[in-house]
Amino acid sequence: MNKKILASIFVIGILALAMGWGTYSWFSNTETTSDIVLTAGTMSIDIIETAPLSTPAGWAPGDSFTVTIKVKNVGSIPVKYLGGNLILTSGDWNFAGVIDVTSIAEYIPGYGWIESIGGTQHYETLVQDYNAPLTLMELAKSYHGDEPGTGVKQDQFGGWVNKITDWVTGYGYDIVPEGTPAIPVGETYWMQLTLKFSESAGDQWQGATLGFKIQFVAAQDLSVIP
User: Fold this and answer.
1) Which domain CATH number covers 70?
2) What are the beta bridge partners of residue 49?
3) Which of 95, 127, 107, 86 is nearest to 204 (CA)?
4) Cα-flanking dihedrals φ and ψ of residue 219, to 5°?
5) Backbone angles phi, psi at 189, to 5 degrees
6) Does residue 40 belong to any structural domain of this protein?
7) What is the C-alpha to C-alpha distance for residues 44 and 170, in angstroms, rounded to an integer?
């Protein structure tokens, strides 16, 4: 008799569970965020002005010529370091040997002007014969890089560099105050390069021509400077 009663209760319990008797109902809700987008910034510079592009027609020994170059940070990341390389491109490259570089003036936004010739910068003492005057040939040969297999610094001609920090604004001899980038976002860097036709140039240079360009490298870290 007891077994039948227990069995009946067990069956009723199963039926109660099947019909939802004795269960609980918990509230819930699910929400999802909007898309979280990761976008890399850009390191981008633009040469917005190079003027003038040629010397006067009557450029003669003793005359000077100043070219102004403006480089703007058009990206979204500050340019911490700015590397430069002067490259001879056309004409008689030997002409560069009788052209003196009398000024390399740089305007760094948020800092001001730096003169690289003479004074504390004394760029002319860092390359080739290590004294003034610095010639355009020496400046062209002061590009930094590694000669394969030797670790010797070289340039487009080979091996006339004294320091790897040459031509890098924001590091080494040309350092700016800590935390000041070479070109903040939206700002413009200026370079004024003044060249003098040496008085010692002889008649063989009458009518001579020479072309050059300056290549700029914007960098967030020195490891990407060639």
Assistant:
1) 2.60.40
2) 70
3) 95
4) -145, 145
5) -95, 140
6) no
7) 17
CB 71 within 8 A of CB 188: yes
User: Is 200 among the domain residues?
Assistant: yes
Token readout for 91 is: 């004409």
- Pairing, β 112-115 against β 45-51: unpaired
Cβ of 174: how many Cβ atoms within 10 Å?
22
The CA distance from 145 to 143, in Å, is 7
Residue 221, helix vs strand vs coil: coil
Rounded-to-integer distance, Cα 115 and Cα 170, Å? 14
What is the tally of structural domains in the chain? 1
Structure tokens at 161: 């560099």
The answer to whether position 32 is within a domain reads no
For residue 20, what are its two tokens? 């939802």
From the number of C-beta atoms within 10 Å of its C-beta (0-12, 13-18, 19+), residue 28 rates as exposed
The CA-CA-CA angle for residues 178, 182, 184, to 5°, reads 100
Q: Could you list the residue range(s) of the whole structural domain that residue 218 is in?
A: 45-224
> What's the token pair of residue 87?
């490259």
Parts of the chain with a pLDDT under 70 = 1-24, 143-153, 156, 161-167, 171-179, 226
Residue 148 main-chain phi, psi, to 5 deg: -50, 130
- Cβ contact 140:159 at 8 Å: no
